[in-house]
Design goal:
This protein is an alpha/beta fold. It has a single domain, classed as Metallo-beta-lactamase, Chain A (4-Layer Sandwich), CATH 3.60.15.10. The protein has 7 helices and 17 strands.
Length: 275
């Protein structure tokens, strides 16, 4: 049985004692294995886990989908709270500084910690390239070809390199696929390379049916045509359940529910899905 619990998400649920904020943190439990997928923006996901009676001791792995603060900055709080020992999985270029650019103004969107911090706090750092099974039935995917032209990364997202600022291609973005008897359940952070690009690539590389997708699809800035096209593309690929949350945008989530009914299953803080 696979259980995915939202320790942090943008929206409140019926559990009113929990804190919701812009960020994402999901606890993925599959049999004996427990993986923390993203650490949100700060310590509030730890508070929420405590309120939910969930222990974050003894995790098998910590996976951070990409290095934007709303997915990665809370790792500092996690480590400083004394959690240690789990393997930390990131994508290539994770530790490059990331910014949002507006003319001559740059806003730092980075994680706020580096590899030395992770290592000094007892977290072995492993960089994933291509695809890699990290636990039985759990595989990370990285490197998503930009096939669908409508899935554009906004120009404002840049990263700082030795040669100066360049547009961020989000080569550090990784996704987690969990094998179930219904097919793969894919968990994504923000889907900056494009949610359809990502799902197409995972399906082609694995040869597996994609049963469900949960996480951020970064459709918050998309128009109705692109949202409709994305949902239809996923459905045509055989995806049964689409669980948009975080940066998907409330409008995209509502459109998905209108199109799919109960097959659209979002996540608010404190919610869980069981497959």
């Amino acid at each position: 049985m696979l259980r995915i619990t939202a320790l942090m998400e943008n929206t409140a649920s019926e559990h009113k004692s929990l804190i919701n904020e812009h960020g994402l943190s999901l606890l993925v439990e599959d049999g004996e294995y427990r993986v923390l997928f993203d650490c949100s923006a700060g310590s509030h996901f730890l508070y929420n886990a405590h309120k939910l009676g969930i222990s974050l001791e003894g995790l098998d792995a910590v996976v951070i989908s990409h290095s934007h603060y709303d997915h990665a900055a809370g790792f500092r709080d996690f480590a400083e709270a004394g959690y240690t020992g789990a393997r930390l999985f990131v994508g290539p270029g994770f530790f490059e500084k990331k910014f949002a650019r507006d003319g001559i103004r740059y806003t730092d969107l980075s994680a706020g910690w580096d590899e030395t911090f992770a290592l000094s706090n007892g977290f072995p750092v492993h960089t994933v390239t291509g695809m890699e099974e990290i636990l039985p039935g759990m595989t990370l995917y990285q490197g998503f070809p930009r096939v669908h032209a409508e899935e554009i990364i906004p120009d404002r997202f840049v990263k700082e390199t030795a040669g100066g600022f360049v547009q961020d291609d989000f080569s550090d973005e990784i996704a987690l696929a969990v094998s179930t008897d219904k097919g793969f359940v894919v968990i994504v952070g923000c889907s900056h390379p494009g949610i359809v690009n990502m799902i197409d690539s995972i399906h082609e590389r694995s040869g597996e049916k994609i049963h469900a997708v949960f996480g951020g699809t970064h459709l918050v800035e998309a128009g109705d045509e692109r949202i409709t096209g994305s949902v239809n593309s996923l459905r045509s690929d055989g995806v049964d359940v689409i669980g948009m949350c975080h940066c998907s945008g409330l409008h995209a989530e509502e459109m998905a529910r209108d199109m799919l009914g109960s097959s659209a299953s979002g996540l608010s803080v404190g919610d869980c899905v069981i497959i």
